[in-house]
Amino acid sequence: SHGDTDDRVSIEPETQGFYNAGHIHYQFQLFDEQSNKAITDKDLTDTHTKLVHVIAYDASRNVFNHVHPQFSNDRWTTDLNLENNGSYFVWAQRQLHDGTDFSSLLRIQITNGKNEIPSTPLQDIRSAIDGNSKIELDNTKIRAGKMAMLNYKITRTDGSAPLITPYLGAMAHIIAVSPDGDDLIHVHPMSGNTDNTGMIHATFPTAGDYRVWIQFNDHDELKTMALSIRVTK
To answer: Which of 54, 118, 169, 218 gives 48 a disulfide partner, CB atoms 3.0 to 4.6 angstroms apart?
Structure first.
């Protein structure tokens, strides 16, 4: 059966439904409903240095994976690390050669692992630290359905200067998820006046607390920052 999607591309996993927690060797096909054919690596445009991005997170929006599958033997394969039980959202994103962007969703269930993380309100948390790297978002109020412009700044807790270099062809990747987990926003910032600043342009479709993961390279180390933003009506 095809995975849920609001466009022409769906996900067909090798294994349906349930997976044992831990290191998961995730295999799937991408299916083009328009041409009625499976999508291979020859059908996709190389954007942001990868053919396909797979993003997985749990219903509480605390567990996060952003990985890049390889195509071999008529299927896509990647590794996921999902240690906690519960319901997970798995997205496949990229662009067909005809210019069609797709963002396709499938849900899976993880069992036989650590306790499921309960879903609780995330509040409005606009700074985070990973190692010595720190990111801060400004206090701009965000309204549902309106284009938001959020400035950010990256610093280091040890007083040294950050050294920001591109990650997957962009200065940062910003992935935001709605309160119910059903809406995913994946954008890349505009450059700021300095290498450690930038502006995020995004539209949040509904009100509520959005989980926001920001990924960037600082001193050749990939940083993944978990923040949250309160979106009002």
So the answer is: 169
